[in-house]
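Morning run. Coffee first, then this:
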Amino acid sequence: MTRILVVDDDRALLRALAINLRARHFDVETAADGATALAHAARTPPDIAIVDLGLPDIDGIDIVTGLRGWTTVPIIVLSARDTQSSKVDALDAGADDYITKPFGMDELLARIRAALRRATASTPVPVIRTAAFTVDLAAKKATRDGAPVRLTPTERHVLELLVRHTGKLVTHEQMLKEIWGPAYADQTNYLRVYVAQLRRKLEPTPSRPRHLITEPGIGYRFEVDGGSVAQD
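And here it is:
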C-alpha cells in the first residue's frame, strides 16, 4: 500500500482526508502539527506527503524543506494561501504541486496519482556499496558482509540523510531540524548517540571510522572510500 503522510491543523479536514484516502486503499498517517509530522516521517518514511502551510508550530514551508533534505518523495502543498508568492515559495522549497483550499477530492486524488507516476518514472534511488557494507535506499535496508543489519527508524533516517549527501558536509543543525524538528536544533548529543550506534553496526573499526566521518563542531560526512554508487 502507498503510504501517505497528511499534515494539517484542521482536525475535521484531517479526519475527512484520512477516511477518503483509506477508502481508496492508501495507508494514511496524519499529523496536526509540524513536529509530529517530522517524527512520523522519520519513523515511517512516506511514499508521498500532503502538507498544509498554516501549522501551529512550524511553517509548512519548513516541513517541505525538512523532508526534501533527505527524501525525493512527492510533496503536495494543500493550503488556503492563494497568493503567487506563497506558491512560488512552496515550489522553490521543494514541493511538487500546490492545491488551494477549498478543493475537490477528485482533484486531489488526480494530483496524487500524477505525482506518484512522476516519482515512479524518476531516476532510480542509488545503492551505496563500501568494502564492508551496503546501503540500499530504495529498500530502506543495510547489509554488512552480506548479512542484514537491523537499524532503528531513527538510525536509518540519520544514515539516509548522510548517504544522500555522500561526500558533502551535513551540519548538526540541518540534521537535527530534519530528523527531530526545529525545537531540537541544539541537541547535538542526539547525533553523537545515533552516529556512534551506526558506527558500531557498520564500520569495521568503529573507533577509526572510514565512512561516517565527524567534522568537529560542525557536522558529519559520509564517504564511500573506494566503494561504489550504483543506480539499481
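Residues 35 and 181 are 6 Å apart (CA to CA). Good start to the day.
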